[in-house]
Each structure stands twice: as C-alpha cells, then as structure tokens.
# Entry
Amino acid sequence: MKTAVQFGRTTKEFEIIESPIPHILVDSKKELHGWWEGIKPYGNRECTAERLLINPYNGCTHNCFFCYAHALGGYFKTFRKEGIVAVFRDFDRIISKQLDKLSVASCGYLSPVTDPFQPINKKYELSEKIIKEFVSRNIPVQFTTKGRIPDDAIRLIKRQEHSFGQVSILTTDEEKRKKLMDGKTPTDELFRNIERLADEDIFAVCRIDPVIPYVTAGREELEELVKRAVDSGAKHIIASCMDIPTSLKGEIYAKIEERFDISKNKLNRLFTERIRGDFNADMGYRRKLFRTLREICDRAGVTMALCMEFESVGGKNIKGLNREFMSSNNCEGIDVPIYVKKGDRFEPVEGCDGNCLGCYRSEKISVCGLPLNEAKAWKLRDYRKWSKEIKQETKEKGQKSITGDW
# Structure
C-alpha cells in the first residue's frame, strides 16, 4: 500500500511499512539549522541560546491533541490524516557528514517538533545514533521527550559535560494525562526519567509545556507537579500556556469540551489574543499564571523560564515575557557555550555562557568572535561560512608562529 504526500504543487508517493506502526522511509538531504525566526524585525525570538535543530521523524504517535504540529503541512499533514510517521532514513549519516565540515557548532536539539523517543525510534534508533555523532565529536546535545529515555541515550550524553535532558510532564494526574495524549508512557515513568538523569549527574529539566487553562492550571496541581519534579532531581522548570493555531481552534475546543467538560464559550472568552497567527489566552490570565508558577518555583528552590511566550506591542511587533518571569540566565536553565574545533575535537569557547540573545540585548561583543549576538535565524551555510573563517584564522596564526620561530 502507498501514500501520497503533498508539498505545495508537488506530490510524492511512498510505500507504507505497517510494522511496528504505519510509517514511511524518506531519503532526505535536509540540513541542520538554527531557530526558525530571529529577533529582528518583530521580536519573534525568546530562545536565548543557539541550537542545531534535528527532527529525525515527522509525525509523533504521542499524538497530543493540542500540539501545534498538527497544523503543519507535508509529512505532518499525512500523519494527522493517516497516522503515518515519516522516518528520515540514515539521517545520522547525513548529520555526520554535515558536522565533519564544521569548525564551530552550537548544541544539538532532539527534537523541537516531534518526540525523538517515540515508539518508532525503537526500530530505527536514529535518535541514539545522532546523539552519538554529536558526543563523539564532543559537541553538546540535548533532548526533550514524553517517552521513556533509552538507557543508551543517557549513557551517551553522560560523556559530554554540557549535554542534558528535558522531560515533558503536563500533569501528575494519570487519568488526565491519558485524555491529553495517545502516548502510553505513564506519569510515574516520566518522573523516573528525571531521576535516572539526576542519578547520572546529568542536568534535568521538567517542561510543563503547555499548561492547559481550566484543565491543568490549578495552583495545587502545579505545586504538586513542581515539587515532584524537584524531588525527582529536576534543576529547572520550563512552562508555557497553550496557544491554538487558527486552523485547529474548533477541533481543540471540541476535544477539551468532550474530555474535560469545559464549554467552548468559556474557552472562546479566554483565547482572545492573536499573536503570530495563533490564539493566545488573554494577557491578564497568562501573567497571573506565570506569576503563580514563578512563586511556586522560587519556593521550591528551582529556576524557571517560559517557552515562546509573547505580548503584542502593536502591529506585528511582539515582546518576550522571559525578561519579566525568567529566573535563570538561559531559558533552558543551563549555560551551554558555543563549541569550536581544536584539532580533532570540539572544545567550549572560554568565557561563553551561550546566551546569544543576552549578548544582542546588551550589545556586547561576543567572546566567540562570531556574529551570533545578532540572534538571527541561522542556517547551516552560516556555520560553514564561520568554519571557513576560523580555519583561515587558525592557518594565519600558525604561519605567524612559524615565521616568529625563524
């Protein structure tokens, strides 16, 4: 059996592999890249540190009904309609070749859109293979998951001092969790993920991302979640408030009403702010929620940041809320420097705390000597350009040294 995937006016056909779940194998030359948007011209960036984004799979069988990825096209649309996951064949080898051509790198990120440890990964293990490619070069890598972290993934990132793990936990109520997603990893196992990271002295983050108004937003529930995360070993909390892509509004409202008995009218009265094309809960509600979360985290002795939370300041211009609510230096709670290749191995840039957005706002000269303080949406070609410049600079320094010796 085959499926057709549409990309604009182009359609590609793929053979469906039914086991262990319906999926297709895709040959792709897609590239590592940074964040999708830069801080200019409208303020569309809240991520403080640079990342190399990696999605070995498109479509995710955790299938959280509120996930923004359901509004995306291409392979994501195929998953939404047919439940078919796209697997990027040998993506670890493609990444390996790309990393071999770099002399400068930021932390790898598995995965900003789909879960790297969803069930299909047990068959292909692309995520562990990709982690190995980063760690073998001493480049940091992070992951975010709602599934069980494989033992090999923990063993690998333990070898790299700035690598870390994030576990997404929306609620301590297991029955509520089952209504929010199809993923079968129980709540207890998610907290156990944090324990397993902490037991290996790996920096562990708990993501309450998103908080769902009227469903998981109660103060007592949030206090219990934060307490349990900290007791399990989490060093940092990341939170957001659910926003809703315009194309999914009716569907998400219907599911919340059906599963949690929250009326569509009540939701409609709350989600009144349009930011970047999505419906957001009104600013007063969000500020109150984030103030509550900050108080809870402060009392629990853990740092906190928000993920992609903005306030409209007129026209297309928006302002990030982390400057108001974040208690850490970097939004992910850990300072991960930029890495530069020295010989056969990458090493951290001395004095770099990884906060490129902070450098932009303070107008500091980056200690890395690169234009990362511009906080743009960087591409692989930018990293290649900087790598050539670093190689040339190293070569010139070497020649001067030889001349001096003579």
